Amino acid sequence: MSIRKVKFQRASLQLLDKIKNILESYKQKNIRVTLRQLYYQLVASGLILNTDKQYKKISGLLTNARYSGIIDWEAIEDRTRKPNIPNTFRDVPHLLQVASQCYQLNRWSNQVYYVELWTEKDAISSVISPITNKYQVSVVVNRGYSSASSMYESAQRFLENSNKKCILLYLGDHDPSGLDMDRDIGERLSEFGANVNVIRIGLTFNQVQEYNPPRNPTKLKDTRSKKYSKIYGFNCWEVDALKPEVLQELIENSILKYLDLEKYKLVQEREEKDLEDMKLK
């Protein structure tokens, strides 16, 4: 639906055709991308340069394309501005219907491991969630170095599962501070007595070499940049520059390393039986 009349140059229309093809491919996979993820796909395809000027240009182009009806509003999401809307129900039967749809047992209750997935990027939450929901894995968005309160609350979850081997899968940028997150998280959780194995599943330098995501200049103001630059040079890479399907495969494979599927299915079968019993009452 067109809200505004916008005149586009021929080059912009040609680029929008490419963008529509990218968005349609992700729609078929039930993936909504952020502006930045789409931008990186355009850079990786060689359609635009990786500069702040180009990012702002793409942002403006997509805004106009959505107002003019060329691009669907639902195709791109903004994870930074989510409203907090109270849950309401039409009536009691509606409440019971929703409750039954939400009913889940703890599918990790009989597992050897307790697993969480942490990421510094809220922008990739919609890419992560289909996989973490599938395997009932908790997700934490730490957005850089976490506060003391956040680390304390996280430590309590791991302590509650101290009878299991605790695994924290981490997804973060490959930059001076991003590579330091693994150490920081592990050390600060241990201060509260939580024994957690922090495992970086991305972004690693091997993945950078394999997938060749768009690079950015290292921020030299970062106090860790000197040590980083000696090893990796003056380039860094963002985790959301990886294609969404690559991220999903990476996450799923990582989770499955610690999940006994046979035990997991037994709990799912109990869930199904409980739901059937509810229908009979």
* Poorly predicted sequence stretches spanning 5 or more consecutive residues: none
CATH topology of the largest domain: Dna Topoisomerase Vi A Subunit, Chain: A, domain 2
How are the strands ordered across the major sheet? 2-1-3-4
- SS content category: alpha/beta
Please report the first level of CATH classification, the CATH class of the largest domain.
Alpha Beta
**What fraction of residues sit in β-strands?**
5-15%
The tally of domains stands at 2
Q: What are the defining features of this structure?
A:
281 residues, alpha/beta, Dna Topoisomerase Vi A Subunit, Chain: A, domain 2, 2 domains, 4-stranded parallel β-sheet, 6 strands, 49% helix, globular
